[in-house]
Amino acid sequence: xxNLKTLALLTVMTLILVLGGRLLAGPSGxxxxxxxxxxxxxxxYWFSDKIALxxxxxxxxxxxxxxxxxxxxxxxxxxxNVSMPKVYLIEQAAPNAFATGRDPxxxxxxxxxxxxxxxxxxxxxxxxxxEVGHVSNRDTLVMAVAASIAGAISFLAQMxxxxxxxxxxxRDEESNTGGIVGLIAGMxxxxxxxxxxQLAISRSREYxxxxxxxxxxxxxxxxxxxxxxxxxxxxxxxxNVNPSVSPLFIVRPLLPGGFGGLFATHPPIEDRIAxxxxxxxxx
Length: 283
Description:
The chain is α+β, with helices and mostly antiparallel strands and 283 residues long. It has helices spanning 2-56, 67-80, 115-118, 121-136, 139-166, 173-217, 220-234, 269-282; strands at 58-60, 86-90, 97-101, 107-112. The radius of gyration is 20 Å and the shape is elongated. 46% of the residues are buried.
């Protein structure tokens, strides 16, 4: 049922992209939106890991640089019965992590330099188990496709903005008024609609990865403790990444300029911790 819901939401995002192109640029925009939808879906399947890692500014992390991280990732991947993901580092102080890739055989896990400074080994294991949980649950492709389509929708909105600024005036100002209103509405509401759909996809996937982490480590409170720390620091330290990939991270990053998002693409940390505490009590 969850997979059907996610498929439906991705379909909605694709329709927003195609119909948004029609709204912003007429029939030619419809074709552009359709082409973008096909390109983004195919591109996300084959290159989702590279796209997400590039947008996040991640670089490959060699095992000789961080043997402990490799040991933990290898351990939880073995427990989850998936291939060892590639490991990447984001050279930023904001503590966070994410996973990406089209399937468990082509997955990658990325951590920021900041997370290594604030969590202990037990908490880091829980965080990495959460990311490997995304891999084993095959969330990574879904979330990467959603991020890519959202990025394409934002691109359309920016094109509309450029068109309005540099397209020049019309001799028939009255007939042009409706087109300008449509452009403004599209610039505002298309990215907003894409964000809402991303919200629905990201929230359900985060809860599932939390549960997988608890099952792999048999230590739900370790992830609860890590989430508290990450939430506290992430509210103060901006993470300079493309906003389109922010839903991929384990906690919502604070984007440059203090912007944390008008809508939360992650479940409330308090709810996630409460669920983990309930799991710990059941154990």
